[in-house]
Amino acid sequence: MARSAFSSLVLAALSATIVGAQTVYMPKNPQVFFDGRNADAASTATTSATAAASFTPAAYQTTTLNRPALPNPMPALTFPAQLYSGGMANMSIPQKGDFMGFSIEMSVATQMLGKNSSNIYVPFLNLLANVVARAGSIQIRVGGNTQENAVLKDSLPNNTILSKDKDNLFNPTGTPPIDYTPDLFYMMGNISNFVNAYWYLGIPFFNHTPFSLELAESGQQILGDRLLALQAGNEPDLYAAPPRTHRPTGYAPADYFGEIGDLVNQAASDSAILKQNDVWLVPSVSATGESEWVIDNVLATGILDSYGTQIHAVTVERYPNNNCVAIYGGGTPVVPQDVLPNYLSHAGTVAVYSEYANAANTAVAHGKPMMLFETNTASCSGFVGVSDAFAAALWGIDWSMTLAAGNFSGALYHFGGQSASYNPFTPPQTNQTAFRQWTVGPIYYSTLFLAETMGPSNKSQIVDLYTNNNNPSTPAWAVYEDGTPTKVVLINYLDDPTGASTINVQIQVGGGTTGQAAASPSQVRVKLLTAESTVQKGNYSWAGQSFGAWFESDGRLQGEMQADTVQCSNNVCTVSVPAPGAALVFLTDDAYNAVTPDKSDIQTFPTTYVTATVNTAIINTTELAVSNGHGDIGAMRLTTSPNSRNKNGAGSLESSVGAIAGAVLGLALLLSA
């Protein structure tokens, strides 16, 4: 059970100290700019305080790309979307409201969640609360490559709860060992007591003779039913990929199958593991193409037949592209402008999903969820100008809806720290937390959109409508609950500043040539997700509300919620979607009301400054901006998984008490009563 005494819980927020110095990525190829500089500039950059203050990690880059050209030929701008009463062919399995969740690299847990179990970051709670108010709950994974060497300690120096072994940062695995304390789990449990959050963890899998099960033991005992499941291996398909040596050459799916048997047997003999069944996540592979490790081959070992009782879900990890060459060299780097159109096409998400269609059906046939356990726009931290632009918000909706329609049961979007451009949200740099707020990225807007699309009923079934002759620029889906159409999702990928490319979608239920009675409502409600262009950064509008630009959010939506009412005529409800934009169309009042909470009904956490009457420091913000947090800029530190083909390299914070902690002696943020 999580620790109590919340009445005195200190919640660190806008001025909270984010513990540690950041890991920074630099490009190895001068053709590609990363974090504002190319490789030549980085090699000659000054290390003065002024230079450090002007350095901008990828998460805060303001660089924008050029608008993409409109397609030629253009799609039809007015077209029908036909729905049927009672359901449609090819509807998905029922989906939960928290379909779209988060994946947080273990090494950055104290950057995102809080400093410890008594010091939780208020913006993080608010951002979770927004989703929970619409979806009913949220699921979060804490793990990744850094879980593989993680060691549970009773305590760590300076009262930290997580630390990275800097001396091992460049070991052949590319994954520095992590030490952590049980207070990490208590912090997660306390977060769950504030918002309805559920968690995934992963046991270390590099050493398997025997397995280290301390994480499973403590995690279950502390988190209880808030811990959904445990990952058994993170990308085992890469364990023997040079230069990794975690398994011998020739390590294959059959070997992994045998190890799962060993794990199940060892856990069964461990009385400290309270839950034995429905607990393991397998196989979490990232392999694609002709690899022997593709998910179909792993399932062909019979792992679900042999260990179905103990397995909770089938998991894979997949990004549609990667930015690894820009960081590590070894080839021609991807130019973000060149790949931008790929994120503005439904055809791309369908093509990637098709690689998993058989596995999803196999999982469903065995009564197991199929989850995309880690994903985002591109591995190795994403593309500046794409991953942090409005294009990613539309792509995130498309990718999630495509997965849901194809019988996946969830998708967790990864955080990679301040050196990643794809984060759903990011705290300010360590040395700027006293005068800057958090940055909310486009993928978080996708998360809110999906939370409202799926809703809290946990009965939503999704079907791709293949509208407009299946044009990739104008995808659409219907949402059914108990056989009744309740919502429609529309995307307009076109980017046209003139306003001439608005699409007009004629939604109708039954009637016409369907052989059914006309059943469209008399009116529908519409919420729009909009921006001026697909390359815009920040200041997006979701139903009239926004989280602002970079460094402007405390996690609460700002502005008044706006939903349009569209009258229907002759069984047709015509909904307009600007270019670019997405629309969530509510066909019933109940569907709208279920995901449209009043502000007073959302449990958010205001940030109330309380300044001590003694020992209160007055800080010059210019000096503060260069005081710490940039000590590793010249170190050319690597990501946590440089050899992973489909895995983000998560930037991280090393646990150590930052200099700012001593500077802001009297400043704290208390939870308002």
Structural write-up:
The longest helix is centred in the middle third of the chain and has 16 residues, at 253-268. The protein starts with 20 loop residues before the first strand and ends with a strand. It is 23% helix and 21% strand. The model is unreliable at 4-31, 33-53 and 608-673 (pLDDT under 50). The chain has 19 helices and 29 strands. By secondary structure, the protein is α/β, with parallel strands linked by helices. The strands form eight sheets. An eight-stranded parallel β-barrel has the order 3-6-10-11-12-13-14-15, surrounded by seven helices. Strands 18, 19, 20, 22, 23, 24 and 26 form a seven-stranded antiparallel sheet that branches. Strands 2-21-25 form a three-stranded mixed sheet, with no helix packed on it. It has two domains: 78-89 and 462-601, Immunoglobulin-like (Sandwich); 100-457, TIM Barrel. Helix 5 packs parallel to helix 6 (214-223) and helix 14 packs parallel to helix 15 (442-454). Strand 19 (476-481) and strand 20 (484-492) form a beta hairpin. It is globular and about 70 Å long.
Topology:
Blueprint: E1 21-22, H1 39-44, H2 49-54, E2 78-83, E3 100-105, H3 109-112, E4 114-116, E5 119-120, H4 122-135, E6 138-143, E7 151-152, E8 162-164, E9 178-180, H5 183-194, E10 197-203, H6 214-223, E11 227-232, H7 253-268, E12 280-285, H8 295-299, H9 303-307, E13 311-317, H10 324-328, H11 336-339, H12 346-354, H13 357-365, E14 370-375, H14 390-405, E15 410-415, E16 425-426, E17 439-440, H15 442-454, E18 461-464, H16 467-470, E19 476-481, E20 484-492, E21 503-509, E22 523-530, E23 541-542, E24 564-567, E25 573-577, E26 581-586, H17 589-594, E27 607-611, H18 621-625, E28 653-654, H19 659-663, E29 667-671
Parallel strand pairs: 2-21, 3-6, 3-15, 6-10, 7-9, 10-11, 11-12, 12-13, 13-14, 14-15
Antiparallel strand pairs: 1-28, 4-5, 8-9, 16-17, 18-19, 19-20, 20-26, 21-25, 22-23, 22-24, 22-26, 27-29
